[in-house]
Specification:
The protein is an alpha/beta fold. Helices cover 43% and strands 17% of the residues. The strands form 4 sheets. A 7-stranded parallel β-sheet has the order 3-2-1-4-5-6-11, with helices on both faces. Strand 5 (110-116), helix 6 (141-160) and strand 6 (163-169) form a beta-alpha-beta unit.
C-alpha cells in the first residue's frame, strides 16, 4: 500500500514509518517541524500545515495514497487549556481537511484517525476496564477536541459510505518520546543520574495513580494491522488490559538502572482531580485482528532508559 502519514516526524510517527517500510509499504509524510530523520530515511516529505486545505489537497492528489494514518495533533493538555482555539482548529478542522481531501481524490481509500484514551475522561473514575461502547466524558480541551473530530469523521463516513477507523490509544512510551510524559520524564532523570550530571534524587508528584501502559512498537503494530486489513468502521481501543501504578513503573526503571536513587515527594507536582486507575479493554481489536501486546514491559523500559543514557 501507499500510505500518507501525518505527524510523521513525531515520536510515534518515526517508529511507525520504520515499521511500514519493513513491511514493504510505500510511505509519504505530511507535516511541519523537524523532519530531518524522515529525509535521512528517504521519505518524501511535504511540509504542509493541515489547516491549509488547498495545499493538503494538492499533495494528496499528487501522491494518490491508498490511505492516511493521521497522527498529527495538538496533543499537549496544558497547551490546550492555554490555547483552546488552536487546539480545536488543528484537531478538528485539520482532521476534516484530511478527510475531505482523501475521499474526494480516492473514495476507496482508508482513513485511520489516531485518537486518545483521554476521550473517556470522567468515565474512567469508575475504575473499570473501559470499552468502546462506554460513554465518553472528556474533561479538557484536548480530549474534547479529539472526541469531536473522531465523531465528526465517523458520522461523515456513514453518510459518504467510506472507510474510516479511529483508535483510542492508551498510554504508550519508548525511545524518542519527549519529556513531559511520565516514563520519559523518569527515564531522562535516571539517565542524568547514571551519567553523573545530576544528584541521586528524583522529585515526584502523586505516584499512586495506575495507567494502562504500552510500548510504542505494540501500538505501531496495531495501527498497521488496522490499515492493512478491512475492519468495520468505528472506534478501537489500543490497550494492554492491565494497569500499573506510576510508583511501580518508577521502581522498575530504578531497578533496571542498578543505582540507588532517593525518591522525594513534591506536593507541587500533584494534579487535581486525578483519575486513579485508567485501564482499557481491547477485546474488540483482538476479535477483529488477533492483536495483543507482545513486548514485555521491562524490555520496553530498558530500551527507553538506554535511549536517554545514549542521548548526547
Amino acid at each position: 500500500m501507499k500510505i500518507l502519514v501525518t505527524g510523521a516526524g513525531g515520536f510515534v510517527g518515526k517508529h511507525l514509518i520504520k515499521e511500514l517500510l519493513k513491511r514493504n509499504h510505500k510511505v509519504v509524510a505530511l507535516g511541519i517541524g523537524d523532519n530531518s530523520a524522515l529525509y535521512e530515511m528517504g521519505i518524501p516529505v511535504y511540509e504542509t500545515n493541515i489547516l491549509d486545505f488547498n495545499t493538503v489537497y494538492k499533495n494528496i492528489q499528487k501522491e494518490q495514497p491508498d490511505g492516511v494514518i493521521h497522527l498529527a495533533a495538538q496533543s499537549n493538555v496544558g497547551v490546550s487549556w492555554d490555547k483552546p482555539q488552536i487546539t480545536v482548529s488543528v484537531n478538528i478542522e485539520g482532521t476534516l481537511n484530511l478527510y475531505k481531501a482523501l475521499f474526494e481524490i480516492n473514495p476507496d481509500g482508508k482513513f485511520l484517525n489516531i485518537g486518545s484514551s483521554d476521550e473517556y475522561g470522567l468515565t474512567a473514575k469508575k475504575e473499570i476496564s473501559l470499552t468502546e461502547e462506554m460513554e465518553c466524558k472528556p474533561q479538557n480541551p484536548y480530549s474534547i477536541s479529539k472526541f469531536c473530530s473522531e465523531q465528526m469523521i465517523l458520522q461523515l463516513a456513514k453518510k459518504d459510505n467510506v472507510n474510516v477507523v479511529s483508535t483510542r490509544s492508551f498510554n504508550h512510551f519508548g525511545p524518542g518520546q519527549m519529556k513531559g510524559f511520565v516514563i520519559s520524564d523518569f527515564a531522562s532523570q535516571i539517565a542524568e543520574i547514571k551519567k553523573g550530571v545530576k544528584e541521586n534524587k528524583i522529585y515526584v508528584g502523586d505516584l499512586s495513580p495506575a495507567r494502562d501502559f504500552l510500548y510504542v512498537d505494540d501500538v505501531v503494530d496495531a495501527y498497521i494491522l488496522l490499515m492493512e486489513n478491512r475492519v468495520v468502521n468505528g472506534v478501537y481501543n489500543i490497550s494492554s488490559g492491565k494497569s500499573y501504578t506510576i510508583e511501580l513503573m518508577l521502581n522498575k526503571l530504578i531497578e533496571i538502572s542498578n543505582i540507588d536513587i532517593e525518591i522525594l515527594i513534591d506536593k507541587k507536582k500533584f494534579r487535581p482531580a486525578e483519575v486513579k486507575n485508567f485501564i482499557g479493554n481491547s477485546d474488540k481489536l483482538f476479535k477483529a485482528l488477533k492483536w495483543k501486546p507482545k513486548v514485555d514491559l521491562n524490555e520496553g523500559l530498558k530500551k527507553t532508559l538506554s535511549f536517554w543514557i545514549d542521548k548526547k
